[in-house]
Here is the input.
Amino acid sequence: MKVLVVEDEQALQDQLKAALNKEGYAVDQAFDGADGLYYAEEYPIDLAIIDLGLPKINGLDLISKIRELGKDFPILILTARSRWQEKVEGLSRGADDYLVKPFQVEELMARANALLRRSSGFSSPVIRKGPIELNSSSKQILVDGRELDLTAYEYKVLEYLMMHPEKVISKTELTEHIYEQDHDKDSNVLEVFVRRLRKKIDPEGNLKPIETLRGRGYRINPDL
Here is the structure.
């Protein structure tokens, strides 16, 4: 899943990127509101974390502009301001949640995870499809009760497919959402991830958990 962090404080940017990467998120970074708007308009984003006190375009105006573009990904506000009126204004502009600085990274991760779940239509961190159980909080995958040992990118691929169970996901879309913007994106590597996932989930070849629709992309088997 792709997270955009718009924050002008370098130290906090570094901290958030490290924490989000550790949890398996791809992170795009912007240090002012103008760059944040560019990323939001030009690149696929699953969640934006936006500081209110930004240069060039402030956080409140940035949120308004993002919503005016028709972008509906969830937005989490970061603010050093404690006045309730400013929090309400942020939510009224189109944000979905907020955190007041200073905050614990663990709380931010929990809120980010919850926003991503809800935006995909899931109320629980545990997503089930047939015998496959994915816990988006613990990043644990079970198949018929046995835990799978997945690499970070194998998990990212499966999580994105599980979060969009009725949708055919093109290679381009999947690549854009699991890699950071400056990463060398190779669709052949994506095919390797999918092939390894199939073997790990379904070693006997009975489930057919991930379908390939020629010329269109991948999806979780709707018959699971």
